[in-house]
Amino acid sequence: MSSAVPIRLGTRRSALAMTQSGHVARALEEVSGRPVELVEIVSEGDTNRGSLSQLGGTGVFATRLRESLLAGECDLLVHSLKDLPTAQPDGFVIAANPPRADARDVIITRDGTRLEDLPEGSIIGTGSPRRIAQVLRVRPDLAIHDLRGNVDSRMQRVTDGELTAIVLAAAGLDRLGPETPLIYEQRDLDAWPTAAGQGALAVETRADADPELLDALSRLDDAPTRFAVTVERAVLAGIEAGCHAPVGVHARFVGDQLQVRAAVYGLAGERAIEEVVSETVSIDTPGEGYIRRQGSGNEADAADGVDQIDHARDIGHGIARRLLERGAADLVSRESSL
After folding, report:
1. What is the mean predicted confidence (pLDDT) over 308-320?
2. Rg of the chain on CA atoms, in Å
3. Which end of the chain is more exposed for a tag (fewer CB within 10 A), N or C?
4. Three-state SS for 194?
5. Is 83 a catalytic residue?
């Protein structure tokens, strides 16, 4: 394919989506030697101002983008990974997970008051069932206001005093860099695990895409990020069937130590079933697609390697199974019937 032919990158039109896609476009231009142009696509999630849970939750932003990719209107897509359903549809492939940004949530207020110290009855804005449960678990006396809209409009409601605080993802704020007098309180991931894939991007294309494009995209992939988010999404997949309970899960590498924390919450935060895992994982040269379980003593594993994606899924599914065995199944059954 001619190096003069632009690569078309499909993206939502929001400021955050355009910024994220712009970062990927510049990186792809560098590794491919071809120009990349952004193709703006409008999804239902961008035009319908209803609650995300009413619109269908995960997938509401992805469907229209994937239709455009299938129709040949673009060559690849960039998603916020947390917006994608865990089941990957036939004909599509996540070709890269670039290095992850800050995965934490932040509480945003006018004066920097910590969540724990807000006045009784303060109004907190968020549309996320997980964040609602986490806020109420810390402060059951606070009021929750369902919140949609772009980052600027959400923050303005705090500035105007309509809301006491809002909860947002740190990654989006870091990428947008909005100028504001508001103050951020970062929540510790050990006590406040966030959505599976939060802070990470997914670069998606067709499974039958041009091999040169697939090769270029593979050079954008960050192996530790892909491993960690695969674990998180496997946890979510393992407890999602028939499940509407809020779930927080975060995996990260500290050296060669994979550390995972997952929690399933009651809708009002009155209960949490948690699981914490630490495992030594050695990731080989990026692109080879293999890992080793250190100290396994299995010669076949040492010689041939274990597919890293399968290993990551195994870890995630094991965590999900233990969560369900320890009572998350009962919590989910009770909450989802309300």
Report:
1. 95
2. 20
3. C
4. coil
5. yes
Res. 337: pLDDT tops 50:
no
For 58-108, the DSSP string reads TTTTHHHHHHHHHTTS-SEEEEEGGGS-SSPPTTEEEEE-PPP----EEEE
Assess contact for 127 and 87: CB atoms under 8 A: no
140 in Cβ contact with 269 (< 8 Å) = yes
pTM score, whole prediction: 0.87
- Output the average pLDDT for the chain: 87
pLDDT band at 258 (very low <50, low <70, confident <90, very high): very high
Domains and CATH numbers, the chain: 1-97+200-221 (3.40.190.10), 105-186 (3.40.190.10), 222-338 (3.30.160.40)
Over the stretch 82-96, which tens digit does the pLDDT of each residue have? Answer: 989 899 999 999 999
Catalytic residue among 83, 146, 304, 307: 83
How are beta strands 183-186 and 165-169 bridged, if at all? unpaired
Of 17, 148, 169, the residue nearest 79 (C-alpha): 17
